[in-house]
Amino acid sequence: MKSITLKESPFKTLISFHKLIESLEEIAQSNVDYRSNYAKALLKEIEAFPEFRDGIEDLSLIENNEALVRNLLADLFPTALTHNEIKAVAIPFQNLTFNYTERFKKILHHQGFTPEFSIRDVDDDQLYIMNCAMILNEFYDQKINFNQPLFFDIQDQNGIMNHYRIMYNADFVEIIPTEKSLTLTPEEVHELLDNYDNIDLWKAKFPKESWILKGFGIVSLYDATTESAISNLKSNLLKSEIEKPKYADEFETIFRSVFRIPELKVGFILYNQEENTFIKPPYSDETLSSYLLFNEQELSCSDSLFSCCFEEAITEKKSLVIADVDQYILTTENKVLCEHLLSQGIKSAVFSPVIKNNVLLGVIELVAPTARVLNSLNAEKLDLIKPYLIDTIERHNVDVLHQVEAVIQREYTAIHPSVYWKFKKEAHKYIQTNSFNKEYIFKEIVFKEVFPLYGQIDIKGSSVHRNEVVKEDLKNQLKTLLDIFANQKSNQHLLLLEQRQFELQSFYNELDAPLKADSEQLIQNYIETEIHPILRNTKMDFDTEKVENSYFASLDPKTGLFYHARKKFDNAMSIINKKLAAVLDKKQVEAQQIYPHYYERFKTDGVEHNLYIGTSIAPTRSFDMMYLHNLRLWQLQTLCEMELEHHQLKASLPYELDVTSLILVFSAPLSIRFRMDEKRFDVDGTYNARYEVVKKRIDKAHIKGTQERITQKEKITIVYSHNNEEQEYLKYIKYLQFKNILEPTVEQLEIEDLQGVSGLRALRVKVKNTTESDTPTKTYSYQELLDEIK
Q1: What is the reported pTM?
Q2: Which of 698, 667, 687 is nearest to 761 (CA)?
Q3: Which superkingdom does the taxonomy of this entry point to (predicted)?
Q4: Between 18-28 and 33-46, two packed helices, what is the crossing angle to 10 degrees?
Q5: Are 314 and 352 in contact (CB under 8 A)?
Q6: Residue 223: which of 115, 123, 103 has the closest Cα?
Q7: CA-based angle 319:324:330, to the nearest 5?
Q8: How far is Cα 654 from Cα 219, in angstroms, rounded to an integer?
Q9: What's the rounded Cα separation, in Å, for the pair 200 and 210?
Q10: In this structure, are strands 659-665 and 715-720 parallel, antiparallel, or unpaired?
Q11: What angle (nearest 5°) sits at the alpha carbon of residue 271, between those of residues 311 and 359?
């Protein structure tokens, strides 16, 4: 007998059979002799135990008189049903049970294991409140409904989790107040009903053991394993990705309960209709497996594994049931599938398509190591589960679509978070209008009265350097070919070889002059069409053949040319761009805290950035010119940090490249408009176009009256138009000189007139390569930098 009561309860429990005894006394007075005699005999037998009527506190009395108790309860526990019904005497909402039916005993005592009889998802506080609710119903005329299903879970000897629905019969229970019980006012009752979670309030109104629960109840269990398992499946499928547990463990536990197969394993694959392939779900690597794909991530439906047998699953949407793989391999044409299953120890399998609107979504896999435990009959149970899987897969497909769209938007058509709200607002208007089948004309996204900030770090002389490395690779390749021809000792004395040698030398001599636009392409075509066929078709001596093989091994597989100097140059460009962009992006996160603003950054032969700040971009924030000045100082200091980052990189670069930095100051507010055709923002209006003209031309401008560029390596050039802008930036420079970031000398320059633009001036100041800071200078190895850009 389970005699573990609750830690706390509003009831003092007295097990009593007084209502049952009263019923027996009525039967004893009846005219039906055999019933009357039976009742009289029982009554006589229990006369020696007045506690059976008055109330039993010592539970050993029941244990010592188990047979008498069973006879007393015989009408409520028929012997003929003891192997079918799952019943016991119990006190409602308390952990106290006895007088089990034989079926109940088998459930509780398999292999000598006796679990706690506990209710799923109900703690002691909830049970306390349920007991209090019984008092409210009985004495305060409340109608509190206990229809919430209660379940008892137990794992059987085969490891299958069984679920039982609990039903109570309280006909033989009586509730009696004691001197400790409190009389509640209607207001107090209402307060309790409004505060279900306040256990302290309930205990205050119904103190511990302030009421007597006299009598007994009957608990009946209904085997709801299938229904409960499906409910658990549905609950798990509805959980968010963060809340979801490990799929394999949950799925297999649920499916084993439904199919009553302890060794059952579950797998799943998705069907990609566009590519006609089966693929693993995104979570399959860690949790839910696939026994069809096994180690493969995806397979075409035309693969031999799926051929023939899976034709019905794909085209006719029918399940493939293999009750005995060893027998099936003898009759099927698809022996590849059977061998694939047997290699995993699978002897029985069901592969059932999951279909919605006649479209195949995926295949659920049930497999077992024992033959014939899965068959066409129990495979029908999958029909109970598939509706929930269909909803989940559809939701998954929609989520994936949204994620794909988000990636495309972020990586290819990014909209900066600062202006995203306006695009979102316009999209909501479109959706609302579209729901009423009305045409909607998209409004242009415009932000008025915003202040621009433009800056760049450009790789100095990148075009010249690029031409130099191209010439170096071409000259090295031509020199190697000339050496091969010069050392040619072939028995085939071809005059053609001498001619080709002459032509190679002519190309080599031409490269001493500046590189022409078509030189690279011309030489590449000549080598591929005229030289390589000769090398491949002419017999060489052993030494020359080794040189020739080494030559072909050193060619770039894409271009067929040497890619040695250019590779160093391209890697250096990539490293600089990546490192400088990383500094800018990191600092930009901090800058957004100053005031929300639009930010875009481009990698070209260097790194450019545009910033726009104004109240139209952040309408919920009040704007002040202080924020613009703050952002200008941030921009100047960030360019200094990018210059320092480059200086620290230079020693590790495979090709030495210098950079120049420039800031364009423009104090007049302007408007920016999102160009739908180009999917980007641009300045709006004729007057504002002057700003864009200056941006495109300023970095190539010269100091007025000279041929010296306004930009120089390791210096920052600040281009402006008005005196107040000059004074503002001189203050910033002085502050950064104080912080030991900039050199003391400041150059003040006049800029040559540009087409349509005149009167521009500039400040130019050098960035210190070393600071007095105790912070150690960062160092990089070339391999570390290569690993980063890869």
Answers
A1: 0.54
A2: 698
A3: Bacteria
A4: 140
A5: no
A6: 103
A7: 100
A8: 81
A9: 15
A10: parallel
A11: 75
d(CA 689, CA 681) in angstroms, rounded, equals 13
Q: Which residues of 499-538 are buried (b: 16+ CB within 10 A; e: fewer)?
A: ebbeebeebbeebeeebeeebbeebeebbeeebbebbeeb
Residue type, 466: R
Q: How far apart, in whole angstroms, are the C-alpha atoms of residue 335 and residue 341?
A: 10
Residue 284 has pLDDT above 50, yes or no: no
* 721: three-class secondary structure by DSSP: coil
Token pair in block for residue 769 = 């390569």
Measure the CA–CA gap between 576 and 653, rounded to whole angstroms. 9
pLDDT tens for residues 156-209?
777 778 888 888 888 899 999 999 999 999 999 999 989 988 999 999 999 999
- For residue 747, pLDDT over 70 is answered with yes
- Residue range 220-275, pLDDT digits in tens: 998 888 777 777 776 666 565 545 545 555 678 888 888 888 899 988 888 887 77
Q: Which spans in 347-494 are helix H?
A: 382-411, 417-434, 462-486
Residue 238 contacts residue 247 (beta carbons within 8 Å): no
Dist. CA 642–CA 659, nearest whole Å = 10
User: What is the reported pLDDT for 464?
Assistant: 87
Give the whole-number percent of the chain exceeding pLDDT 90: 30
| 3-state class (DSSP) for residue 60 | helix
CB-based contacts of 371, cutoff 8 Å, min separation 6: 323, 324, 325, 326, 327, 347, 348
* H or E segment to which residue 609 belongs: strand 606-613
Residue 585, CA distances (Å) to 239, 489, 618 in order: 35, 60, 20
Per residue in 294-339, pLDDT (tens digit) is 888 888 877 766 765 566 666 677 788 999 999 988 888 888 889 9
Joined together, the tokens standing for residue 5 give 């009561």
Please report, to the nearest 10 degrees, the dihedral formed by the alpha carbons of residues 206, 208, 209, 215 taken in order.
Answer: 70
Q: In sequence order, which residues have a C-beta less than 8 Å from that of residue 163 and are 6 or more positions away?
A: 120, 151, 152, 153, 223, 224, 225, 227, 228, 229, 257
Neighbouring C-alpha atoms within 13 Å toward the C-beta of 317? 10
- What is the DSSP-derived secondary structure letter of residue 562? B
